[in-house]
Amino acid sequence: MKTIFKIIKDFPWFLWSGWGSIASIFLFLAFWDMGNQLYGDLILPSPKEVISTMITLFTQQDFIDNLLLTIKRGIMGFGVSLTIGTMMGLIAGYFTTASIMSRPIVTILVGIPPIAWIVLAMIWFGFGDMTVMFTVIIASFPIVFVGALQGSRTLEGDLKEMMDSFHISFWQKCKDLYFPHLFSYLFPSWVSALGMSWKIVIMAELLSANDGIGASLAIARSHLDTPTALALVTTMVGVLLFVEYIILEPIKKEVESWRD
């Protein structure tokens, strides 16, 4: 609870320290506008037109419903892969035999492209939520699993022996050794898996669903409606940036403050 209050207290400073990131976004918009002047509105609409289209979309209830549905599918799939991948990765890292046995399985899962999983899921589950969430889980699971595996395998034995010699309690070991070390491996894998989940959920909806942002993107593509397509893409990127930099990054900075 104390950690949560500290994150909230330091949040204005975190926003102030983000000016470098904001500057890079404006630089990207400048290159975007340059591309619009070179190639025209059909190929690359201007940022102003895309933002105007996005504002219009947010006034439509159907778009809001589709956005919430996509977020729900992404969060549910990501949550399942995070839970199962973290637990299985920690177990595999603790037991050498499990680690050796899991490597070829993870290699197979990573080697199969997401589009192949979408096709298989469409055959197995048909069109709808299950196909989308299954694809998200199976695509992001290896990322979380490998992060947890590496974190548990690299715990320093010397540090554990030193703490044992000082008769430090198990809770203190978890707080000062196990959790900070594991978190330094787990958090990057969670962020990578989150980005993968968000991309996969859109791709799966585009190919296998009649609702959600992915389905809306498919409709915009069929109508050659480039401003709407880019507005949808911008919305998806905005949601991901909000989750990663406004929610997850302050938590990461607080938990990893021991590095400073």
Q: What is the strand and helix layout of this fold?
A:
Elements: H1 2-9, H2 11-16, H3 19-39, H4 47-57, H5 61-94, H6 96-111, H7 114-125, H8 129-153, H9 157-165, H10 170-208, H11 213-222, H12 226-255
Helix pairs in contact: 1-12, 4-12, 5-6, 5-8, 5-10, 6-8, 7-8, 7-10, 8-10, 10-11, 10-12, 11-12
TL;DR of this structure?
By secondary structure, the chain is mostly helical. It contains twelve helices and no strands. The protein has helices at 2-9, 11-16, 19-39, 47-57, 61-94, 96-111, 114-125, 129-153, 157-165, 170-208, 213-222, 226-255.
Following the backbone from N to C, one meets helices and strands in this order, namely: HHHHHHHHHHHH
Distance between the termini: 22 Å
pLDDT averaged over residues? 81
What is the gyration radius calculated from CA atoms? 22 Å
> Count of helices?
12
Query: What's the CATH architecture?
Result: Orthogonal Bundle
> How is the CATH topology named?
MetI-like fold
Q: Into which percentage range does the β-strand content fall?
A: under 5%
> What form results from the Cα inertia axes?
globular
Q: Share of helix among residues?
A: over 70%
Structural class designation: mainly alpha
Strand tally is: 0
Count of all domains:
1
CATH C-level class is Mainly Alpha
Tell me the CATH superfamily: MetI-like
Ranges with pLDDT <50 over ≥5 residues?
Answer: none
Largest sheet: none
Explain what you see:
It is built from 12 helices and no strands. The longest helix is centred in the last third of the chain and has 39 residues, at 170-208. With 260 residues, the chain is mainly α. It is globular. It has one domain (71-259): MetI-like fold.
